[in-house]
Each structure stands twice: as C-alpha cells, then as structure tokens.
Specification:
The protein is mainly α and about 70 residues long. It has two helices and no strands.
C-alpha cells in the first residue's frame, strides 16, 4: 500500500481491492465473460498503443514560438 494514507484510506483501499479480486475470480470462472473481457482488452491495448505512438511523436516535436522578442 502507498505511504501517507490515513487509516480510513487504507481500510477503503483494502475493501476495494477485496471487491476487485472477488470480481476477477467470478469473471475467470465465467467463460463467456472471460472471452469478452479478453477481446475488449485487445481493443483497449490497440487504442492505448495508438495514443502512445501519438504522444511519442508530440514529445519529439521541435517547438518554436513566434511573435516573441
């Protein structure tokens, strides 16, 4: 867990993590949901890769400021 969290934040985070792990277990046991999730993950990964490529291009751009003296 991250440092600097209050006791209440740590409890909330642990509860949230428990719910996520339980949901993941349910999804893994449901073949239809698991297949759908895997397909969607491929779409999401492709979209993320496209955004990453675009961001890399922007990061490498030479920027000039016009009109400044």
């Amino acid at each position: 867990m991250a440092r600097g969290l209050t006791v209440q934040d740590k409890k909330w985070q642990a509860e949230s993590d428990a719910r996520i792990l339980a949901d993941a277990d349910v999804i893994k046991k449901d073949r239809t949901r698991l297949i759908a999730a895997a397909k969607e993950a491929k779409v999401m990964a492709k979209e993320q890769k496209e955004r990453s490529t675009a961001m890399t291009k922007v990061a490498g751009m030479k920027v000039t400021v016009r009109g400044r003296k």
